[in-house]
Design a protein that fits this description.
The chain is an alpha/beta fold. The protein is built from 9 helices and 17 strands. The protein folds into 2 domains: 205 residues, FAD/NAD(P)-binding domain; 114 residues, FAD/NAD(P)-binding domain, CATH 3.50.50.60.
């Protein structure tokens, strides 16, 4: 990573978020010879770092490649560990200008149209801003009594802590099915609480038959058309079609999904449509938000409908955004 100079003059672009989409925008900014900076509140590709330790991507490594850097994996579908190494190599090979562990606090626009992005460590002026903050940091809460107990986990790491434990997995999408199977195979007594009448239809094709067979044979107990009513230190209470059910329980793994940080986006000045999904106000062709010169990229465009956007179908967002900025004034001077 390059040492960053002082920033007395406005940058062409500040990118908020150091995930795959943010890095893709940075690579395009490098190609266009723009002055830019990526600001990330946590580690590089923070969301992927928080994925389960043994996770395998649904997409192939080829579909995850950005910046012309090959994504090498042992199998067709890469692992979390391989992805972390890949994005580290991207940072290194392109010498991307990135600041890590620096949360953004806010943003203001002055009378000259320059944005000042304020962080925990400094203020950075820029003519344009791209927001690529993803959605994995804030879980969708169940809003039930006891959800704040230490035994309730909204982020899953690995199966070992649940060996020999009575585990309730909430949800029926990919994450929930993966967690239920992995903890079951490591010796947990697994029960699933599923709001719908069956496993989510878009569960990975190699996972769905496995989880359905485990439920059918009774290895994993499942309550369909059911919800969690209350979580107690040693029990959980479910509302089911047959009435209220109380189960002895050690851990609740709430794989209920995640959502964008709407509070943060609103703090920056982003406005949202009045639709059910809370999609942001945005020009669909340029990705410019309601704020002039501020662009939305990646899953930040989706509102609550996060399942429609992935790394592989947002890789081009950087090209779209940078193409709208033009070549920086500094570069134009060099050419003249």
């Amino acid at each position: 990573m390059q040492d960053l100079p002082s920033l007395p003059t406005p940058l062409d672009l500040i990118i908020i978020g150091g995930g795959p989409t943010g890095l893709a925008i940075a690579i395009e900014a490098e190609k266009a010879r723009l002055s830019y900076l990526v600001i990330e509140k946590g580690v590089l590709v923070n969301s992927i770092f928080r994925f389960p330790a043994n996770m395998t991507f649904f997409s192939t490594s080829l579909n995850l490649e950005i910046g012309g850097v090959p994504f090498i994996s042992h199998l067709d579908k890469p692992t979390r560990r391989e992805a972390l190494e890949y994005y580290r190599r991207l940072l290194e090979s392109h010498q991307l200008k990135v600041k890590l562990y620096e949360p953004v606090l806010g943003m203001e626009r002055n009378t000259e149209g320059i944005y000042e992005v304020k962080t925990t460590k400094g203020n950075y002026p820029a003519r344009h801003v791209a927001i690529a903050t993803g959605f994995y940091d804030i879980p969708r809460m169940m809003d039930v009594p006891g959800e704040d107990l230490p035994k309730v986990k909204h982020f899953y790491d690995e199966a070992h802590p649940y060996v020999g434990q009575r585990v309730l997995v909430v949800g029926a999408a990919n994450s929930a099915c993966d967690v239920a199977l992995e903890t079951y195979y490591k010796g947990a007594e697994v029960t699933m609480c599923i709001r719908e009448g069956g496993i989510y239809e878009k569960v990975k094709y190699w996972i769905r038959p496995n989880i359905e067979n485990r439920i059918k044979e009774g290895s994993i107990r499942a309550f369909f058309n059911s919800t969690v009513k209350e979580i107690r230190p040693q029990q959980v209470v479910l509302t089911t079609p047959a009435g209220e059910v109380t189960l002895e329980n050690d851990f609740v793994l709430a794989m209920t999904g995640y959502q964008p940080d709407f509070v943060f986006l609103e703090k920056l000045g982003i406005k949202f449509n009045a639709d059910e999904q809370r999609t942001p106000v945005m020009n669909p062709e340029t990705f410019e938000s309601n704020l002039p010169g501020v662009y939305l990229a990646g899953v930040a465009q989706a509102g609550l409908d996060t399942s429609k956007l992935f790394i592989e179908n947002t890789r081009h967002h950087g090209e779209v955004i940078v193409s709208k900025l033009g070549i920086s004034s500094n570069f134009k001077k060099q050419l003249s």
